[in-house]
């Protein structure tokens, strides 16, 4: 019988069914099938997601299952079955952890200190916490949605209803007021804005014409003259250094006077009296100004198209100053020549007038009134007066000077400080016979600059 094929096949089928049944029970039941187990209970507030055969794990390894979930005194009692001899202690903590966002859970056991003793069959476990599931996620999403709704309501109240009680409402109201003010300002001053733009366009066109190919040689010549002037100024500093060295050694009449104690005391007394007269030594400022101007149109009445200025300003206070200048002016004086034609009458002649270079002198007293400055005295060897107006924190100065009233000289120009001590100048010089636009540049040295140059010179 045992040798028949039918018997062998039947026996193999029976053995296979038994093996499959055993493995199915092991997978479904976990611990508790053909093995000895311990049973424990856990009291939980919410047993949602915990059903029979829910896995019980230690360190992520399945060690048992949930046998039953019952209601006891308003709380859920979870009955679990786990393998014996797991080494769990009495202070073992049970936690309900989510398997995913769909709400499935498992029970995780965390053993405590060995000193608390071993966990026995039938002992109740403490619940330590619950893991996040889809319910908690939805609660968080609901809280975020509520906050967003509050923000949306505040924005709607500010923009639609005009509520100014919230910070957003006040911000929206201030922006609305600002835009209205800007609109009113631009509308009221539209003509002035257009005029400013037109003037800037005209200035840009003039600069383009001046700096064009036709006048490049003249501009380069003007800058060369300015550089030559700075070189001469440097040479003058060397001469001053030599003179002061001789004075310090007591050479010459001035050196002997300065090194004589009685003379020094007298000079010091005189200086003190002068400082008291001019407003005090603490407020007395001295500065040196040098600049050159290039005439863009001279109608060939002069040989040179560059006018240079060297001046010193003494300022005893913020509201006044004194200024002296030497001016090298190509329009200095006019010279008229008459050429009689040969073989003609005596009164038959040709008259030629040409201007020649001349060194002129300027001495002014100026008084400041807020952004205005009035000045008067000698301007280029003749009486005259002028007016300055400062803009943009004294970066831009608009000036007008009236002098030599026989020829009706009027000088209108603007000066722009592009950097500390360096500036650009441009304008027009007019008289009864000629109008000459000009541009130029210069340097302005203050007390601090002069101290630095003196320190470098005597080092």
User: How is the largest sheet built, in terms of strand order?
Assistant: 8-9-10-11-12-13-14-15-16-17
Question: Would you count the extended β strands for me?
Answer: 17
Strand content: 35-45%
- Output the helix-strand order: HEEEEEEEHHHHHHEEEEEEEEEEH
Describe this structure in words.
- The chain is an alpha+beta fold and 459 residues long.
- It has four domains: 1-26; 31-132; 136-188; 214-340 and 349-457, no CATH class.
- Helices cover 36% and strands 38% of the residues.
- Strands 8-9-10-11-12-13-14-15-16-17 form a ten-stranded antiparallel β-barrel. Strands 1-4-3-2-6-5-7 form a seven-stranded mixed β-barrel.
- Helix 2 runs parallel beside helix 3.
Strands, helices and their partners?
Layout: H1 5-29, E1 37-44, E2 55-58, E3 61-72, E4 75-83, E5 93-98, E6 105-110, E7 124-130, H2 134-159, H3 167-188, H4 190-210, H5 216-248, H6 252-259, H7 261-278, E8 285-295, E9 306-317, E10 320-340, E11 349-369, E12 372-379, E13 382-391, E14 396-403, E15 409-419, E16 422-430, E17 435-445, H8 447-457
Parallel strand pairs: 1-7, 2-6, 5-7
Antiparallel strand pairs: 1-4, 2-3, 3-4, 5-6, 8-9, 8-17, 9-10, 10-11, 11-12, 12-13, 13-14, 14-15, 15-16, 16-17
Helix pairs in contact: 2-3
Summarize the structure.
By secondary structure, the protein is α+β, with helices and mostly antiparallel strands. It has helices spanning 5-29, 134-159, 167-188, 190-210, 216-248, 252-259, 261-278, 447-457, and strands at residues 37-44, 55-58, 61-72, 75-83, 93-98, 105-110, 124-130, 285-295, 306-317, 320-340, 349-369, 372-379, 382-391, 396-403, 409-419, 422-430, 435-445. 36% of the residues lie in helices and 38% in strands.
């Amino acid at each position: 019988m045992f040798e028949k094929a039918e018997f062998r096949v039947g026996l193999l089928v029976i053995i296979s069914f038994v093996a499959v049944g055993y493995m199915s029970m092991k997978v479904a039941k976990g611990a508790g099938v053909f093995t000895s187990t311990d049973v424990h209970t856990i009291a939980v507030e919410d047993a949602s997601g915990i059903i029979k055969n829910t896995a019980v794990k230690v360190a992520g390894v399945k060690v048992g299952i949930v046998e039953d979930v019952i209601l006891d005194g308003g709380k859920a009692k979870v009955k679990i079955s786990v393998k014996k001899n797991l080494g769990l202690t009495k202070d073992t903590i049970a936690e309900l952890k989510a398997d995913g966002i769909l709400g499935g859970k498992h029970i995780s056991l965390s053993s405590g200190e060995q000193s608390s003793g071993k966990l026995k069959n039938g002992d109740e476990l403490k619940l330590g916490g619950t893991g996040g599931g889809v319910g908690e996620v939805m609660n968080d999403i609901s809280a975020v949605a509520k906050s967003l709704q509050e923000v949306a309501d505040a924005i709607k109240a500010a923009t639609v209803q005009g509520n100014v009680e919230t910070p957003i409402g006040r911000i929206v109201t201030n922006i609305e007021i600002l835009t209205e003010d800007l609109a009113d300002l631009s509308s009221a001053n539209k003509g002035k804005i257009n005029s400013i733009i037109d003037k800037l366009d005209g200035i840009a066109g003039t600069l383009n014409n001046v700096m064009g190919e036709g006048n490049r040689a003249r501009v380069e010549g003007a800058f060369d003259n300015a550089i030559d002037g700075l070189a001469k100024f440097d040479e003058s500093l060397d001469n001053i250094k030599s003179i002061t060295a001789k004075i310090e050694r007591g050479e010459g009449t001035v050196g002997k006077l300065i090194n004589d104690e009685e003379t020094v005391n007298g000079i010091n007394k005189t200086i003190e009296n002068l400082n008291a007269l001019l407003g005090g030594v603490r407020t007395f400022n001295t500065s040196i100004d040098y600049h050159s101007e290039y005439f863009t149109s001279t109608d060939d009445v002069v040989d040179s198209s560059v006018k240079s200025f060297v001046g010193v300003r003494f300022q005893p206070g913020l509201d006044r100053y004194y200024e002296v200048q030497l001016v090298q002016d190509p329009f200095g004086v006019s010279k008229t020549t008459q050429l009689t034609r040969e073989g003609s009458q005596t009164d038959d002649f040709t008259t030629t007038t040409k201007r020649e270079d001349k060194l002129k002198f300027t001495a002014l007293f100026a008084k400041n009134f807020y952004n205005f400055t009035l000045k008067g005295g000698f301007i280029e060897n003749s009486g005259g007066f002028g007016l300055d107006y400062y803009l943009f924190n004294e970066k831009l100065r608009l000036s007008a000077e009236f002098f030599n009233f026989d020829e009706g000289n009027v000088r209108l120009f603007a000066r722009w400080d592009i950097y500390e001590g360096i500036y650009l100048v441009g304008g027009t010089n007019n008289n009864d016979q000629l109008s000459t636009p000009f541009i130029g540049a210069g340097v302005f040295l203050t007390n601090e600059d002069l101290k630095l140059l003196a320190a470098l010179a005597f080092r």
